[in-house]
Amino acid sequence: MKFKRVLVLAPHTDDGELGCGASIAKFVSDGSEVFYVAFSICTRSLPPHLDPYTLEKEVKKATKVLGIKPENLFLYDYDVRHFPTHRQEILEELVKLKKQIEPDLVLMPNSDDIHQDHKTIYEEGLRAFKACTLMGYELPWNNFAFQTNSFVILEDQHLQVKKDALKCYESQLHRSYLNDTFIESWAITRGVQIGYKYAEAFQIIRLII
User: Fold this and answer.
1) What is the pTM of this model?
2) pLDDT computed for residue 1 by the predictor
3) Which CATH superfamily is domain 5-206 in?
4) Alpha helix stretches (DSSP H) within 47-179
């Protein structure tokens, strides 16, 4: 299935790259126009020794590596862990994006993600994009369960682009999940499930054919 316009909803910078970065690279290489929205650049939650706009700079570099046009990157700065209190504002922004972009595929956090910000983006995304195909990406450290009922088959170059994009987050490289060994093992695990070398798994939230 070919998608013309793909919208990635990332609660925080790097969520989209982690959950579906290789799939983004594949969609771009297949000719889809990809849009990326990060709802927090975390200016008020970074350690004091870092420039508060560090993650804004890093997400711009990372999405460029993925092949996303600069004009297709949308950044907001809602406070981390406070998305539920801004639920209506976030919904209104999502509705604006729907009208502006008119995506036929939306990639978003999945229904089992326990992070309060991710849950808000999932729930408000459902409301805003009722007429789109919706797929939930996985972030294993936030999931007690995950429905792997859809897969994107990946080739070596797609996974390499994901690794390269994640390296742009220099301020986050201390995190256990931001290393090549984990990223490749994750893709191998999902690939084994469907008999391919690499894959990324998704939860089908709504499928429109």
Assistant:
1) 0.97
2) 77
3) LmbE-like (3.40.50.10320)
4) 54-66, 87-101, 116-128, 156-166
